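hey m, so remember when u said the tokens were messed up on ur end? i reran from scratch. heres the input so u can diff it against urs
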Amino acid sequence: MKALVYHGSGQFALEERPRPEIKAPTDAIVKMTRTTICGTDLHILKGDVPSVVPGRILGHEGVGIVESVGAGVSSFKAGDHVLISCITSCGQCANCKKRMYSHCARRHLPRRDRRRVAGGDRHSRLDGLCRSPHALRG
């Protein structure tokens, strides 16, 4: 599957990447129907975000259709049309329960622990599927 991959300041390429798979009970696989880069991606491409290392797949916002979900996902099912927001949130803290997702109390967790269907380290493919870890919020 094709993905836009960052390789350093001003360097990027369309590359083949493997098909995503369910890796955890809280994962969802989404068939992307539309995705794009945004202002954050443009800053990454310019080299303005030093925490982003070469190899990062860009395009963290999109819409699509859920293809499959892990056993722990109850808010989504195959065939659901979903929006994948740019905001990273857990969906479970007090602020998220008040629908104040941009104020998520867990958004400053280590990156490996804060990847959510609503943002974070999804691997968007320009021509296919996206794995959305922690797909818990409907």
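this time it looks ok to me. The helical segments are 39-46, 94-97. if urs says something different then somethings off w ur setup not the seq
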